[in-house]
Description:
It is a single chain. The protein is an alpha/beta fold. It has a single domain (3-343), classed as Metal-dependent hydrolases (TIM Barrel, Alpha-Beta Barrel), CATH 3.20.20. The protein is 53% helix and 13% strand. The chain has helices at 3-10, 26-35, 45-51, 57-69, 74-90, 102-109, 113-131, 147-160, 183-191, 206-216, 231-240, 248-253, 265-270, 289-299, 304-316, 322-343, and strands at residues 13-19, 93-100, 134-142, 165-171, 196-200, 220-223, 244-246, 275-277. An 8-stranded parallel sheet has the order 1-2-3-4-5-6-7-8. Helix 9 (183-191) links the parallel strand 4 and strand 5 (196-200). Helix 5 (74-90) packs parallel to helix 7, helix 8 runs parallel beside helix 9 and helix 15 runs antiparallel to helix 16 (322-343). The two termini are 15 Å apart.
Amino acid sequence: MNDMEFFIRTMPKVELHVHLEGSVQPETFLTLAKHHHIALPADSIAGLREWYRIRDFNRFIEIYMAISNCLRTTDDIELLTREFLISQAEQNIVYSEVTFTPYNQFLNCSLDMHEQLNAVNRVRAWGEHELKVRMGVIVDIPRERSANAGIEIARFVVDRFGDGVIALGLGGPEKGNPPSKFQQAFDIVDQAGIPCVIHAGETDGPQSIWNAIVAAKARRIGHGVRCTEDPELVDYLKATQLPLDVCPTSNICLGVFPSLEEHSLPKLIESGLSVTLNSDDPPLFNTTLTDEFLSAGMCFTWDALLIKRLVLNALEVSFLSESEKRSMGQRFVEDFSRLESSRS
Ligand SMILES: [Zn+2]
């Protein structure tokens, strides 16, 4: 392991764009399917990995829905959350903002959304105590659902805000489901002073990002990597420093860019935009946040200064309070210096 790899693996990290359901380990997915007598297109780890060779968004949604369909009890939700936090702790990801879509599990098997969140919260408390890692929950609207479903989810978010819930999200198939479809839902959370984070500019173009800004007053954009197709939008994002959660491996798996070399990430950084690095759905894309730093760092020849800046920016644009950001930031800077002096 060279010095930079050691630094990346051990440095403290923050992750802002990672999906709870999309973090299920293949072994756990198979176990849950077997337990609930649900047939999957594969019944082995190798078979699942083959099925995971995702090349388009439709296949991705199919896999995502199959995972959701195997989450049928609060014990399943606890197991999923526990394994997620263990994986974050192993990477020294001390704080995560995790997108969770309880509405899918509610539709599949009437699993109550409050009970699902209670299960997540039990494990969240355990993770803070036992693993010393923290998480906040972004409850998202699956955008293929109706505007009324969006309203129901927005009301749930208002009801549970502060009890683990930190924001309302919007995910799922972007094309044909613009943020404005959920205008009423966004208005409900806006009136309660709750922020929105919106997937946009991934499978759809700049217009989708503009729509997220106007309709949802998005406080962060999930992906946003196609903003480069509209110079005016790039100027706007630079001026406002509206953060983009960038997930390079996910984008390549889903065909947004043909390769990492051709990803817009270096251009976003050079243009002075606020970006963070994320894994999205790590096992589905055979990645982790650590891997994202390693592969992007190598591909774009990043130095430690830029890597540290990306970590600190994730902390800065998170939904933690200003005092939490300051104290965590202080600890990060101390850890960075200790790690750097230990390798010199
Ligand atoms: Zn995502």
